[in-house]
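Chapter review: from sequence to fold.
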Amino acid sequence: MGFKIDETGFPLVRCTLEGSLNDVEMKAWLTAQRRTLGIGRKFATLVDTSGVKEWTPLNRAANTAFLKECEPLLKNLVVGCGLVTPNSWIRGIATAMTWIIPFPHPIKYCESIGEAELYCERQLRAHGINYARKVG
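The C-alpha cell string follows.
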C-alpha cells in the first residue's frame, strides 16, 4: 500500500491511502501525521480511503494508539476530517461507531472527494480560517 500526504494547500491537508499498509508503512503514515500536527496551526484533513483494500487489526490498533497519544493535539488543531469511502455500508457503520467511541475531532464519512472538500471548507470557515480552493 502507499500513502501520500499533501500539505501544499494548508490549512487543508489531503491524504490518500491505497491498498493495505504493512507495519513499516503504518509507522511512516503515523509519523507523517505527527509531523502535520507539529505545524501547530488549525487545519482540516481530507482522507481518501477509496483505494484501501484492507485495514488490518494491526493497522486499527496502531491508529487507536495514535488517536489516544495525540488526542489533545487532535482536539485543538483538527477542525474537521472528511474521510472518503464510497461504500455506503462502511460509511454507515463507521458513523455509528463514532457515536459509541467519538473521535477527538469532528469527522464526516463522505461518498466523494467533492463532498469531503466541501465539508472541510465549511469546517475551516466555521473556525474563522480563511481558505480558498485552488483551481487548476
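Two observations follow directly from the output. The chain has one domain: 2-126. The first strand starts at residue 2 and ends at 6.
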